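Researcher: Structure prediction, please.
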Amino acid sequence: MENVKQEFHGAEQLQASRPDKTPKLKMTEKLTFGLGDFGANYSWTFIASFITIYMTDTVGISAGIIGTIILLARIFDGFSDIFMGTIIDNTNTRWGKAKPWVFMTAPILGVLTFMLFNVPGMFGQTGKIVYVFIVYFLISVIFYTANNVAYSSLTSFMTTDEKGRVSLGSIRFIFANVAVLSITTFTTILVDAFGGGQQGWTWTAAIYGLLCAVPLMITGWFVKERNVAEKKDKEQKTSFVPIMKVLFSNKYFILAIVLYLLWYLRQTETGARIYYATYIFDNPNVMGILSTASLLPLIIGLFFAPQIVGLYGLRKSVNVGLLVSVLGTGMMIFFSENLTGLVVATVINALGLVLLQAGLSAIVADVGDIVYWESGVPVQGSVFSLTSAGMKIGQGLTAALVGWALQLGGYVANSAIQPDSAIFAIKSMFIYFPLVMIVLMFIVVLLLNYEKFMPQIREEIHEGRVGEDRTKYIMEK
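Model: Predicted structure follows.
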């Protein structure tokens, strides 16, 4: 066993010293990696899409209180993400740095997801609020954080190849969007099929808990880590403060966080979709049509994203796509109450977002390489943890914004007719606010002008010239 461990670590160090020589990933391993995001969404997308309407219409907790609970948990969540990245960077096992965390946290995440949609009816109003806060806090701040930061950082640990990273991002989000599409399309149908009310949510949550845990465990067990950056002193731990210092002194890292934040703030449309279907089109099942129009183009487009990025470059491809998305969202305003026109506009919007979704993980992995090259400090886990913090804060604000907008708009739970102010709030969260976020993302991507320097930076990392030993003028050209 000791010989096996030495062989493993020797191979790991060899790959770390020659990061541009990581082998080309096989499709089976890419698919195994992508399966993890399929599972993760059966916790996170399920919660993000249905927690508000479940709590307001089944449990009886107001939308404003739910929005506040989510925001408070997400603030703590952002901090826990930061610490989780440092933990991953300091994890050293024969299975790897991130893999064990993906595997171990998956079953707990599945159980907690089930518990969140099973608020005990015996509790009074205060008891229900406390229960929801505790369970949501455990999911968001601890177990989803540990799982998702580790899972996301696998993009960096598995390969250094740019096209390979974009391919991993594409496959990951193909699986993710398939999960999102199935969740947003079939959840209300399943709840009704299982008897509606709490009973319907109980059985649906049980199925989704399993669909969350099992795929993540498969990913955590079978994928391989190859590109593990080594410290010069392998016995010394990488402490939290130096990591934060080198990360926040890098402008590209800050831009990456902002990009993640904007990407998830744009998704107020996800939380508002069930309300839009119910109160604009008077049919909750229209949510499935809108979800399909939003997600199916993404799923199809992600198959072609690596080839497009390979031909035209990541930054240029992403920004052309974002301009298409602006056009599509503008059309959504015009066709806001025409289902056919709205579906067409939603498809155009979704096609425009394909390349950014495919490239997000690659951008963060690239930024991690830049930071390592500049500082000599391994930050592969931490760079993903902080962008994950941006994601979590963005998602928390997204859910809170939907809840607050409904509250301010005078939304009346279970009422067939909503006031005009509530209708405007729903449209704002579904169309107007996401449009502003897309425009801001376009500006941020314009500022991410590192792409032309990456071949030289990777060559320097390959040759061991990092930190003070690097060629300092490369990014000054």
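Model: The chain has one domain: 26-223+236-463.
Researcher: Thanks, that helps.
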